[in-house]
Amino acid sequence: MSEEILTLSCLEQADLIRQKKLSPVELVQACLARIERYDPLLRAWISIDAAGALAQARRAETEIIQGRYRGPLHGLPYGVKDQMHALGLPTTLGTRVLNEEEMIAPCNAAVIEKLQQAGAILLGKQNLHEFGKGGTLEFAYGQPRNPWNPDYSASSSSTGSGIATAAGMCSFSIGEDTGGSIRGPAAFNGVVGLRPTFGRVSRHGAVMAGYTTDVLGPLCRRVADAAQVLSAIAGHDPRDLLSSRRQDTAFLPRPGQSLKGVKLGIVREIAYNDSTSDEVKTAFDAAVGVLKQQGAEVVVLSLPLTLYAVPLLLLSLDADVAAWFVSKYLRDRYDRFDAGTRTRLAAAALIPATVYNRAMRGRVLARRQLLDAFEQVDLLICPTTPTAPKLIEQMQERLDTGDDAVARLMERRIGLYPFSLANVPALSVPMGLSRQGLPLALQFAARPFAEQQLLQAADIYENATPWHTLQPDLAHTLAGRTTQEKR
Question: What is the domain extent for residue 311?
Answer without folding.
Answer: 3-486
